Amino acid sequence: MTVRFVEDTPPDPIRFAYWVPNVSGGLVISKIPQRTSWDADYNRRLAQIAEESGFDYALTQIRFTAGYGAEYQHESVAFSHALLAATSRLKVIAALLPGPWHPTLAAKQIATISQLSGGRIAVNIVSGWFSGEFRAIGEPWLDHDERYRRSEEFIRSLRGIWTQDNFTFRGNFYRYTDYTLKPKPADPLPEIFQGGSSRAARDMAARVSDWYFTNGNTPENIRAQVDDIRAKAAENGNRPRIGVNAFVIARDTEEEAQAVLQEIIENADPDAVKAFGHEVKNAGKASPEGEGNWARSSFNDLVQYNDGFKTNLIGTPDQIAERILALKDAGADLALLAFLHFQEEVAYFGTHIIPRVRALEAAREKRAEAA
Ligand SMILES: Cc1cc2nc3c(=O)[nH]c(=O)nc-3n(C[C@H](O)[C@H](O)[C@H](O)COP(=O)(O)O)c2cc1C
Q1: Closest by Cα among 180, 7, 2 to 107
Q2: Name one GO biological process term (predicted).
Q3: Which of 68, 175, 178, 319 is most buried, judging by how many CB atoms fall within 10 Å of its CB?
């Protein structure tokens, strides 16, 4: 069943987020030369370029260790704060991993950053996919759906602490009795994003998340996820928005863009990609229904570690703008983007692609009004 919402007409402009390269090696598992750097100065400048270019959000990553390269990893909350301090409009989404993070600390840390940044911090609750990471830091590795049960309690705890005085909660993982956090976050409350696309991930989104982030995919597959989540969410009175990952290769001609994609894949680090493929079997493929992230990813797909090539934002600015509109038609509210050379390509995206997307959106609205 497809659920249509009155507030969908006219839809909001699609939003843009970029992946913060706070992890070394860029966003592809490839030895192709990249001008992207994981260091703080590069990232501060990138955040400024992004907000000048029309991006609304930046998403940091959390890794304690990585099995596919990504040897150096700055911590997500501290790094997010540095980016907020360097910008004035951009919202920064800090990734939190239940297990290492407890909701008590996370709620307080994020409330303080929210106060310091005028309400520009958001969170992405990730549920873990790499058992080796948990083993390395001595955290118990729960089975797939149990990880989501914990994440859901984590989200309920965060929201409860942020919105209620005398918060009381009895979960299997977390418990609160008459707890009052002061100060609470600034207005607006930090938005709660989540990553993952398995049954358990979707059900959690339908129940408690503000935003659902999924791996790269075709508009048809995104539409199927959106319909599924929105139908269930409506029953819960929730209305999660949808963010879709994509790796952008925008060039003056389609041939040039495709040549860059081939070069990335030809330079893929086969051992690292295979190691990553092996690890993610513990994530999506291990979900009971076998439908999670990476359940159907080929070797080439895995070279971009969140299936970003599948979304096919690879081509000329006109082609990419049209495909972004197709994603929006499929129900996406936000495109989460990665690039090979972030600073230059985020600026190029802002100059050449966002205006085309806005023009297409305006033309569509005009047609709708005339109809
Ligand atoms: C956009 C996006 C961002 C993510 N960021 C992180 C991250 O920073 N750290 C992490 O350990 N996992 C991250 N994940 C992984 C998810 O939280 C989840 O564990 C994984 O996608 C498995 O999902 P599944 O339930 O669909 O199998 C991210 C996933 C998505 C889609």
Answers
A1: 180
A2: alkanesulfonate catabolic process
A3: 68
SS3 state at 133 = helix
Query: Residue 238 is encoded by which pair of tokens?
Result: 């929730």
Give yes or no for a contact between 173 and 148, defined as CB atoms under 8 angstroms apart. Answer: no
Mean pLDDT by 10 residues, the chain (371 residues): 46 95 95 96 98 98 86 97 98 98 98 98 96 94 96 98 98 98 98 93 97 96 96 95 98 97 94 84 66 79 91 98 97 98 98 98 92 84
- pTM recorded for the entire structure: 0.95
Name residues whose C-beta falls within 8 Å of residue 254's C-beta, 6 or more positions apart in sequence: 315, 316, 319
CA of 197 to the centre of ligand 1 (A): 9
* SS3 state of residue 343: helix
Residue-range domain boundaries for the chain: 15-366
Residue 303, token pair as written in the block: 């070279």
User: What is the rounded distance in angstroms from the CA atom of residue 230 to the CA atom of residue 198?
Assistant: 15
